Amino acid sequence: MSHSRRIGVITAAAALLLTATACSGLGRSTVGMLTFRGHDSPVELSYSNTSVNGCHRIGLPKGATHVENNTLVDVVLYRTLDCTTPLGNDGIYVATTLSNVTAPVSLPWRSFSVIH
Questions:
Q1: 114 vs 51: CA distance, rounded Å
Q2: Is 10 helix (H, G, I), strand (E, B) or coil?
Q3: What superkingdom does the record give (predicted)?
Q4: Residue 60 is part of which domain span?
């Protein structure tokens, strides 16, 4: 392989790597549906293509007590509106393609974040 061809291959590989790295965090979203339901409620609220960045409020007035994570990513559920964990109450981890239901005496979930 000639010297100029080798430099061309290295330059092309570096440009490709730089492009992939620069775009990796932009506009990424979940793939699949994340579905919430309140206690004894027939109403379901589903999220799809949710950004993997930041905290997301669950749009049910009384919060959610049931969740189905049919996405390709894991999520953490919080009992606060802003994904905080006051008094050492950790968020609830729900892995991809799993579901979870709150205990009858516990508070509902109010927000979630995506693990990416």
A1: 8
A2: helix
A3: Bacteria
A4: 29-115
**Helix or strand (DSSP H, E) at 12:** helix 3-23
- The verdict on residue 87 lying in a domain is yes
Q: How many domains does the chain have?
A: 1
Q: How many helices (H) does the chain have, and how many strands (E)?
A: 1, 8
The percent of the chain in helix, strand and coil, each rounded to the nearest 5, is 20, 35, 45
| Residue 75 forms part of a structural domain | yes
Q: What is the pLDDT of residue 70?
A: 93
Least Cα distance to 39 among 112, 93, 103, 92 occurs for 103
User: pLDDT by residue (tens digit) across 48-101?
Assistant: 989 999 999 999 999 999 999 999 999 999 999 999 988 767 889 999 998 998
Alpha-carbon gap, residue 110 to 60, rounded angstroms: 8
Q: What is the CATH number of the domain that holds 103?
A: 2.60.20
Q: What per-residue confidence (pLDDT) applies to 18? A: 43
